[in-house]
Amino acid sequence: FLGRIGSDVGGGLCQLSNLIFWMTLHTPLTVVERYRHSHDVFPDTNRTQPFGSGATCAYPHRDLMIRNDTEQPFQLCVQVGKQVLKGEWRAPAPPVCRYEIVERNHRMDQASWGGYVRHNELYRRIYDLEGGLLEEEFLFAKRQEARQALGLGDEPLVVSCWGSLGAREMNKKIAQFMKCECEDNTPFHHIHATGSFGWRWMPDYVREQGVDLAAQPRIEMREYIYDMPQVLAAADLIICRAGAATIAEVCASGTPCIMVPSPNVTGNHQEKNARVLERSGAAAVVREADCDGKSLYETAKSILSDAGRMRAMRASARNMAVVDAAERIYQTALDLAKH
Predict the structure, then answer these.
(1) 180 and 95 part of one domain
(2) Coil, strand or helix: which one is 59?
(3) How far separated are the first and last CA of the chain, in Å rounded?
């Protein structure tokens, strides 16, 4: 630690949680709660799995929680040997996918206390049994930490926003959307950004729908979303416009989306943008004139209830992302400057 070799407390519990966590990442099971170790005791030489891919358990403060969203049971089997732990997940049916865990953006950052902190991002690649890549998804370096920071539980997170100013008609539709949520016992957490003008109108719209936000902790209304990178990392679905910057963010985060293009733009360019994502399978597109709050709500519920569609939307969005756009712009500017 801090460049020095020393002793520390350790034992079998973390080794067991490491094993269970690593095995789970190679199954369709869902990790609900997981904490990284405070420091990494394994050398980089001959490392067989990425840095930061372990899980710590410390009763009663840190848990490893796993949920089975599939239609078949899973049985955890662990064997304790003299020198090694062995484990496996068993299920009645053979696997239909195989998994690979990879890392990106591995770096050392100087911390405020003078030392250095190691960071990376973990991704999981999901392949069919013939080796075809089905999906690449963010793992816990972003999503779980973002959800914990936002105080979310297991419920899905839906985000809706219409731009910094707000859109009067779409805010009215979201007020209707909120009414549907309440009538349906708020099946997900919802963060809505009203925009600056919408912040003045929205409380009246919500009251007209009979919604008492003070009694609905899962419905959160903000003027702006200042922590959008964190919120997008935690989100399961975003309902939004289809401007170029919004599309870039949605694709980079791989967030499934319902796009309602603004009709008040030159050449109807937002709908043209949105249809590109729709054709790739990354977005559902609804014209403003053709929707109301109830239809938006039913569309959102339909997407959230279809795990296969959600996976496909995430994969399609990430395939369209240009995550090194800043580097490309920099290199282009540099090349132009040389000439």
Answers:
(1) no
(2) coil
(3) 48
What's at 212, amino acid-wise? D
Rounded-to-integer distance, Cα 320 and Cα 252, Å: 8
**Contact yes or no for 304/188 (Cβ under 8 A):** yes
Residues 165 and 291 in one domain: yes
Residue 339 belongs to a domain = no
Largest CA distance in the chain: 71
Domain count, the chain: 2
pLDDT of residue 141: 46
Q: What digits encode the pLDDT tens for the residues 306-338?
A: 988 998 998 899 888 886 677 788 889 988 998
Tokens linked to 287: 């014209």
Residues 99 and 205 reside in one and the same domain: no
Tell whether 4 is covered by a domain: no
Range of the domain at 125: 12-141
Domain assignment of residue 302, yes or no: yes
Long-range contacts of 298-304 (CB under 8 A, 24+ apart): 298/180, 299/258, 300/158, 300/177, 300/237, 300/239, 300/258, 301/184, 301/187, 303/237, 303/256, 303/258, 304/156, 304/158, 304/188, 304/236, 304/237
